[in-house]
Amino acid sequence: MSRDGFRSGAAASLIALIALTLAWELWLAPLRPGGSFLAFKALFLLLPLRGILAGKLYTYQWSSMFILAFFTEGVMRGWADQGLAQRMAWCEVAISTLFFICVLGFARSFKRRV
To answer: Are the C-beta atoms of residues 24 and 88 closer than 8 Å to each other?
Structure first.
């Protein structure tokens, strides 16, 4: 896959994870009726968004570690929750894994050419 493909995949998966987080915690399966404060975790996902969209290597490097917190949350809630919340958690795992793979592919494409 090309550098642009990894860049597009990382951007799309990050935006999808933001949308999933907001929908999950505000409407679809919040911890409390009417939404929960866990929706604020989407704000943390906005931190790398600008750098990911701009293709800044440094952002790709640190966000590869940053996304592991969302992966871990998805795994824990995937095993602990039931019903729709559980399915949303496994979607979070899949999207964060896709983001991680794309970020690593993008960063690695710089190493090969240097």
So the answer is: yes
**DSSP conformational letter for 25:** I
What is the distance between the terminal CA atoms of the chain, rounded to a whole angstrom? 18
In whole angstroms, how far apart are CA 88 and each of 4, 12, 43, 44, 92?
28, 17, 18, 18, 6
Average pLDDT over residues 81-92: 95
Burial of 41 (0-12, 13-18, 19+ CB in 10 A): middle
> pTM for the whole thing?
0.90
- The residue among 57, 72, 74 whose CA lies nearest residue 113 is 57
Return the residue matching tokens 């597009």: 8
What sign does the CA torsion over 24, 30, 34, 39 have? Answer: negative
The structure tokens listed for 81 are: 């929750």
Domain boundaries, the chain: 3-33+41-113
The helices-and-strands tally (H runs, E runs) of the chain is 6, 0
Confidence (pLDDT) at 113: 53
